[in-house]
Structures are given as C-alpha cells and as structure tokens.
C-alpha cells in the first residue's frame, strides 16, 4: 500500500467517525422528544396538518412513535453498515446522506406534532405555528453527511483463479473455516437496547400491548442479527454447510450433487442485496462486506455467495470434491 493510499484511508476514517456521530442525531431527537413530552401526552396525537397549521388527521401517540422509531433505527443502523462496509465512498455519501435526511424528517415531524399536541388542551385544538420550520433542520443534517464523506473510492481487490486440490482414489478431505463481523454483533445489541428503550417509553404511557409487541419484535430481530456475527462453513463429501457458530442454527446447506462449480470473487454487497443473510434475485448469500469469498454455482437453483477468509483454500477443496 502506498503512502497516499494510507493517508486516504486515514482521512476517510476520521470523516467516517464524524459521519457516524451525525447519523445518530435523528434518533437522539426522537427519544429526547418522547421522554420530555411523554408525561404530558394523551393517547391521541395530532399527526397531519392543513395548510393553515391546524390538525386534520390524528393517530395513536405511542403507536405512531413505535413506527417512526423503528424506521429511524433501521435507517441509522443501515447508515452504519454502509459506512463500514461499502468500499465506494460515492455510493456511501448518497446512501447515508439520504438516510439521515429521511430519518431527521420523520423524527422532527413526530417531535413537532407531539410538541403542538402537548401544548394544547385537546389534540383538535393544537396549532402547528412555527413548528413547521423545525423540519427545515433535516436538510442541513443530510447535507452535512454528504459533505463529510469523501466521494473517492478504494480500489477493488483483484480476482484469483484456484486449482483443485490433488486427490488420490480413496482420499478423504474436508475444510472448515469461520467468518463473521463484529458489526453484526453491535447492530444486534443496538436493536435489543432499542427494544428495551421502546418498552420503557411505552410503559410510561401504560400501553402494555404495544410494549410487548415492540419489545418482542425488536429483541428477536436483534438476536437474529447477532446470530450472524460468527458463522462456520464446512465443506466435505456431503457438500457445503453454513451454520451460526453462536447458536448452532443452520443457515443453508448445498449437497455436493447440487454444486456445479465454484469461483473465488470479490463479493459485492450491492449485487447480492446487502449485508448479512440475503435472499435476492442474484441468489442466496452471506455477506459481511465487500471482501473475498466463494460463489458456488448450483445445478438446481441460483448461485450462493459467502464471504470467507482463505476462500481460495475452500474453493480448492470443493473443486476437488466436485471433479471426483
């Protein structure tokens, strides 16, 4: 790696840290508004406004909060994944900038509606007033992230051809490797903490039903993401099998008879539908980021991609088993 490349990565690391801090602001705004205004809010929220600034639509206070919070959390976590895993900074700045913009608009819209409702004797008497101008603050947040992230890109890694491992008649061979990402662990922990926060906020509003639903769904989602933080790939005469190392949950299996070929490639998350365990038009995939991995062709279905260290060794063993 040249000195210029090292300096470029260092600068991007500092910009990325600043961008990460900005992506959290919409969630902070939303939670701060809920905690500050929650005790004064009733079950109904003025949520839609006419051109004159008077309410013409209403929704459940905390049910609307759960929906907005879930979207903001998803956009925030998605921004983190893009900042850490997308190698194209041009794509990252557009994706994260738009995510922060949408998250900020949703968070500020709920906070402004909650503030107007809390200051009125009844939701139907609420007045939007100057609160509409608060939504303008969402634009600078998205623009700041867009400016922070440099638009240049890190060069892609080159692909390599792999020769099959030489086997004699009667030889038995197997390969076991592990893959994963600490980011999945942190995302899962954040989701579970978010579920607890939602439950606490809704408990203050005495909406037990929504507490159980929101908490259970968020915690289950967090556990699902955590299960992808560490996986084990095994290849032997039976085929290929990927399981969660933490919970021993099988993720997918490909019988050897269904394998038509294998290649070592740089796995592109955008091609395979994103990060984590993916099922898209391109096929199945376990993706931890833009990194080297296996692409396994199948005779009875779409290909399967797996980002895994030492992918060439795994491909060599699998190719030898296929040819035999």
UniProtKB/TrEMBL annotation:
<keyword id="KW-0472">Membrane</keyword>
<feature type="transmembrane region" description="Helical">
    <location>
        <begin position="128"/>
        <end position="149"/>
    </location>
</feature>
<keyword id="KW-0812">Transmembrane</keyword>
<feature type="transmembrane region" description="Helical">
    <location>
        <begin position="62"/>
        <end position="83"/>
    </location>
</feature>
<feature type="transmembrane region" description="Helical">
    <location>
        <begin position="95"/>
        <end position="116"/>
    </location>
</feature>
<feature type="transmembrane region" description="Helical">
    <location>
        <begin position="211"/>
        <end position="233"/>
    </location>
</feature>
<keyword id="KW-1133">Transmembrane helix</keyword>
<feature type="transmembrane region" description="Helical">
    <location>
        <begin position="182"/>
        <end position="205"/>
    </location>
</feature>
<protein>
    <recommendedName>
        <fullName>DUF1648 domain-containing protein</fullName>
    </recommendedName>
</protein>
<feature type="transmembrane region" description="Helical">
    <location>
        <begin position="17"/>
        <end position="42"/>
    </location>
</feature>
């Amino acid at each position: 790696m040249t000195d210029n490349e090292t300096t470029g990565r260092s600068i991007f690391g500092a910009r990325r840290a600043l961008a990460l801090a900005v992506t959290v602001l919409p969630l902070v705004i939303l939670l701060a508004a809920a905690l500050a205004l929650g005790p004064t809010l009733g079950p109904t929220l003025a949520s839609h406004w006419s051109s004159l600034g008077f309410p013409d639509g209403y929704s459940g206070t905390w049910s609307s909060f759960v929906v907005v919070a879930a979207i903001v959390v998803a956009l925030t976590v998605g921004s983190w994944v893009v900042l850490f895993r997308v190698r194209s900074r041009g794509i990252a700045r557009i994706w994260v900038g738009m995510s922060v913009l949408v998250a900020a608009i949703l968070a500020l819209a709920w906070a402004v509606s909650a503030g107007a409702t809390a200051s009125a004797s009844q939701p139907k008497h609420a007045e939007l007033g100057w609160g509409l101008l608060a939504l303008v603050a969402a634009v600078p947040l998205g623009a700041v992230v867009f400016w922070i992230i440099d638009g240049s890109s890190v060069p892609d890694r080159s692909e390599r051809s792999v020769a099959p491992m030489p086997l004699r008649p009667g030889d038995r061979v197997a390969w076991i490797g592990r893959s994963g990402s600490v980011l999945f662990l942190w995302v899962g922990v954040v989701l579970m903490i978010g579920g607890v926060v939602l439950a606490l906020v809704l408990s203050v509003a005495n909406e037990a039903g929504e507490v159980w639903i929101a908490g259970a769904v968020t915690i289950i989602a967090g556990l699902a993401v955590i299960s992808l933080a560490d996986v084990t790939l095994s290849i032997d005469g039976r085929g290929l099998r990927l399981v969660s190392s933490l919970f021993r949950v099988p993720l997918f299996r490909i019988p050897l008879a269904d394998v038509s070929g294998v290649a070592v490639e740089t796995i592109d998350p955008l091609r395979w539908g994103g990060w984590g365990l993916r099922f898209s038009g391109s096929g199945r995939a376990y993706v931890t980021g833009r990194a080297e991995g296996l692409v396994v062709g199948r005779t009875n279905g779409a290909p399967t991609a797996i980002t895994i260290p030492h992918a060439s060794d795994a491909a060599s063993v699998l190719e030898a088993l296929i040819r035999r």
